[in-house]
Design goal:
Number of helices: 14
Helix content: 40-55%
Strand order of the largest sheet: 3-2-1-4-5-6-7
Shape: elongated
CATH superfamily of the largest domain: Glycogen Phosphorylase B
Number of domains: 2
Strand content: 15-25%
Radius of gyration: 21 Å
CATH architecture of the largest domain: 3-Layer(aba) Sandwich
Distance between the termini: 19 Å
Length: 378
């Protein structure tokens, strides 16, 4: 096979999307030394980020280094020139689709609630994602919940879709003895116990209700535990900072901003608990990362999160700050519960690996190639 892979987020601070692209490509490279892969690096992705040096992997930094031009012209031209059998759209497709393609459906959140994204982002995401749902030869859904939504909206996609869960990097493991980087120590005193939240500050991640829940929890526990939020600030940063001031919790909340993956295992491992009250997720990678590090976990009872947690986390109503605060108080006060969640989380999270994700992705490639070859013969 000659496979093209379109990368838009690898090496950037785009959270789970960047992790998916980087980790899946590395896992495919570790498993497959036979088929030929052409990685199309759309600005600002650079080939140096991947650090893969094997003869069947070829990296192409598309020129000019302008994202819009790349997507409109350079990607379709490269796919034709490289003569790949098909290509893999890991996030968004180019304007023209010159070959059959595999599409990764990370989640339908852009369709669920218009408040999750600003209008300018939805104007881009909605039509391009619909196009992939309708035209992709194979659709890899990040969870069963994502596939269920897809089939309800596009019944004809049932035969073209399958669930391929994300993985989790082996670096995520209990590591409380690792010292925080100086940049993190400058922002928070890690001698204090803390509740951890990981994710960009945007409406879908539910930061305002998390802050309101923490304020309730702080009252009930006499402020014994801080709140640490690790995630880049987005269009919602002003609203979140206003809520912190309104609730009078500024002295006990640390906004760390974007944190490098290398420091995340330490953050998870030292936390008293991890709270992930997202309003919608296609997979929810931080949930698995936290459980891999032995961190007692609280998450929402919506979308794929109960599916991914698999009984290893406390489930809460993400629309209710009181529900979130009650779970936080329960975990804080019950040492037996913390130990139980830690053990169940380690067991559940071990089921997710990038090797498994890569094997199932390669299998989807092989099936598409068989269909393509059969159609050419007929």
């Amino acid at each position: 096979m000659r496979v093209g892979i379109l990368t838009l987020k690898a090496g950037t601070q785009a959270g789970g999307l960047a992790t998916y692209e980087s980790c899946l490509i590395h896992a495919i490279a570790a498993l497959d030394q036979d088929n030929e892969y052409h990685i199309l690096c759309v600005h600002p992705v650079e080939r140096a980020h991947f650090q893969i040096d094997q003869p069947n992997f070829h990296f192409h930094e598309l020129a000019p280094r302008i994202r819009l031009v790349n997507m409109l012209l350079s990607v379709p031209r490269a796919i034709r020139k490289l003569d790949v059998n098909f290509f893999h759209v890991m996030y968004l497709p180019p304007l023209t689709l010159p070959k059959p393609f595999v599409f990764t459906a990370h989640g339908p959140e852009m369709f669920i609630d218009p408040k999750f994204f600003p209008l300018r982002i939805r104007l881009l995401l909605l039509p391009l994602t619909r196009r992939c749902y309708r035209r992709a030869s194979s659709i890899l859904c990040a969870s069963g919940a994502t596939r269920e939504y897809l089939i309800r909206a596009y019944p004809e996609a049932a035969e073209r879709s399958r669930v391929v869960y994300n993985g989790c990097h082996d670096a995520f493991k209990p590591s409380s003895d690792v010292e925080p980087a100086q940049a993190l120590r400058d922002r928070f005193d890690f001698k204090s116990p803390y509740v951890l939240a990981v994710g960009r500050i945007e409406p879908r991640k539910n930061p305002i209700r998390l802050l309101e829940a923490y304020a309730l929890f702080r009252e009930r526990t006499q402020g014994a535990v801080k709140l640490v939020i690790a995630g880049g600030e987005t269009w919602s940063k002003g609203e979140a900072r206003d809520a912190i001031n309104r609730l009078g919790i500024a002295s006990d909340v640390a906004l760390l901003g974007y944190v490098q993956d290398a420091q995340l295992p330490m953050l998870y491992s030292r936390a008293r608990m991890f709270v992930f009250p997202s309003l919608w997720e296609g997979f929810g990678l931080p949930l698995i990362e936290a459980m891999r590090c032995g961190c007692p976990t609280i998450t929402s009872n919506v979308s794929c999160l109960p599916e991914v947690a698999g009984g290893a986390a406390l489930l809460v109503d993400p629309l209710s700050p009181d529900s979130i605060a009650a779970a936080m108080t329960q975990v804080h006060e019950d040492e037996t519960l913390r130990a139980d969640l830690r053990a169940r989380g380690l067991t559940r999270s071990s089921e997710f690996s990038w090797e498994r994700c890569a094997r199932e992705t390669i299998q989807a490639y092989k099936e598409l190639e068989t269909q393509r070859a059969g159609a050419m013969r007929s």
